Amino acid sequence: MPPQPPTPPPADSRGTRAALLFALTAERLSVFYEHGQWPTAAQGASLVAEWLNRSGRSLPLADRRLLSELSDEFARQIASSLSREAGLQTVHEMMEALDPKYESDLARSLMAECVKWLDGA
């Protein structure tokens, strides 16, 4: 019998919410650098619902909207502090870091910032 994959933590756990904030920030930056537009808060909340649904989890709409709004603020802060080239490199690093096997000091630093954003919300 093949081993069962580990059960993901609850959607409302601090770690899951930080990971969602990180992933949504990366997605927002990617869209911004590729298309010159920022996804709306509703689009971000819908994306979080899609991601959670894949693992049979969910969050209330108010929580998804909060994550969307926080990711928008964080993404804009990142974009405003970097050149386009540095921003593109940051997005690439963040997208790579969505794979838990990928090691990155930058991603760890940005994840720590996500935790701070959540703690401040």
What does this protein structure show overall?
This protein is an all-alpha fold and 121 residues long. The chain has one domain. Helices cover 70% and strands 0% of the residues. The protein is built from 5 helices and no strands. Helix 1 packs across helix 4 and helix 1 crosses helix 5. The longest helix has 22 residues. It is globular. The model has no long low-confidence stretch (mean pLDDT 91).
Describe the SSE topology:
Layout: H1 14-35, H2 41-53, H3 61-81, H4 84-96, H5 105-120
Q: Please describe the biggest sheet, giving its number of strands, its sense, and whether it closes into a barrel.
A: none
Order of helices and strands: HHHHH
Q: What structural class is derived from the secondary structure elements?
A: mainly alpha
* Unreliable segments of 5+ consecutive residues: none
As for the number of domains, it is 1
What is the multimeric organization of the chains shown? single chain
Residue share in helix: over 70%
Helical run tally: 5
DSSP strand count: 0
Radius of gyration: 14 Å
Quote the beta fraction.
under 5%
**Distance N terminus to C terminus?**
44 Å
Look at the structure and give the mean pLDDT. 91
- What sort of overall outline do the alpha carbons produce when their principal axes are compared? globular
Summarize the structure.
The chain has 121 residues and is mainly α. The protein has helices at 14-35, 41-53, 61-81, 84-96, 105-120.
Features:
121 residues, mainly alpha, globular, 5 helices, 0% strand
